[in-house]
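Researcher: Here's my situation. A collaborator sent me these components and asked whether they could plausibly form a single complex. I don't have experimental data yet, so a predicted model of the whole assembly would be a useful starting point for our discussion.
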Amino acid sequence: MPLSTNRSTLTQFLIEERRRFPSASGDFNALILDVALACKGIARAVAFGELGGVMGNHAATEGGTINVQGETQKALDVLSNEVFIRRTEWSGNLAGMASEEMDLPYQIRAQYPRGKYLLVFDPLDGSSNIDVNVSVGSIFSVLRAPADVEATGRDVIEADFLQAGAQQVAAGYALYGPTTMLVLTVGDGVNGFTLDPNLGEFMLTHPKMQIPADTHEFAINASNSRFWETPVKRYVDECLAGKTGPRAKDFNMRWIASMVAEAHRILMRGGVFMYPRDTKDPAKPGRLRLLYEANPIGLIMEQAGGRASTGERPMLGVQPTALHQRIGLVFGSKNEVDRIERYHAEPIKVELSNPLFVERSLFRV
Ligand code: AHG
Ligand code: MN
Ligand code: MN
């Protein structure tokens, strides 16, 4: 068994980072360590699989419970949400929480002191993959509570969480794959930690992660292609056209259906991920959620030299309007995200192959 003695633990990394801010109280580090412990707990629950008795839908009814997203909750969605709450709420570092699995903001219970941070999370991302033993993960975002919340310790309301992604103090994800990893940004680059199962500690294995600016790998759920908007269709068509098309190179495609796993692949070797706004359901402007999926992954991408966008503009500049707001999401290698934004900005080109628009046709272009 390899020994990890030559590597920093997550605790050591956080303490050494904090030395750059001599006035910091340590609350923030304590919070991150609590989140890391929550992730270790979820990793174990996931690893036990069928043996843990937590597979399948949440049991409240035979068909499971439905969350605010209108999605059936898995037992592990609910358990992971509980683990996040129990591991973090006691410490006096949080003013409140919000999660994919809770309709309303979570109030820190009366027996615990309240603190200055807000924790927003997707306790289990990719949970449709749980029952088929494919990688899943947890995503989290740390925001500063508004000043009056911090001063008065009042209950949190939805509006307290509606902060643009650029305001995030920290963001990260844990990936429960063949190894368990924690990838974290505290606004000074992105660092990856691998869980040493012997020690139960996250060890710094991937310092200063950087995403290559160019790629030949893209990820999109192509079953939605008939609902895509023109710029997305154009981008994907050009990738598919390969060497003989306008991009003059062949592309590879991946779709794991766990965004957190796609984000990790992209951090490791580049790529672009798209879950764009489409016309499938006019009530849903995109599939993924701004506050606990797009923003934390967006900050990680930007901090690793990549980009995150709505397709039209930088994700981290978007002013949220609702806790569970959905949004089109494109992230990954910088030059590809730039290109996709450019296609959205360009006036829609009428396809010249359409007989209605060719020369001497009914509608001249
Ligand atoms: P969650 O399990 O937290 O609801 O998120 C699932 C998300 C994301 O992880 C993934 O990329 C996407 O849903 C998959 O969507 P499709 O089922 O449309 O492929
Ligand atoms: Mn998710
Ligand atoms: Mn989820």
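Model: Some features of this prediction you could bring to your collaborator: The CA atoms of residues 238 and 245 lie 6 Å apart. The longest helix spans residues 27-48.
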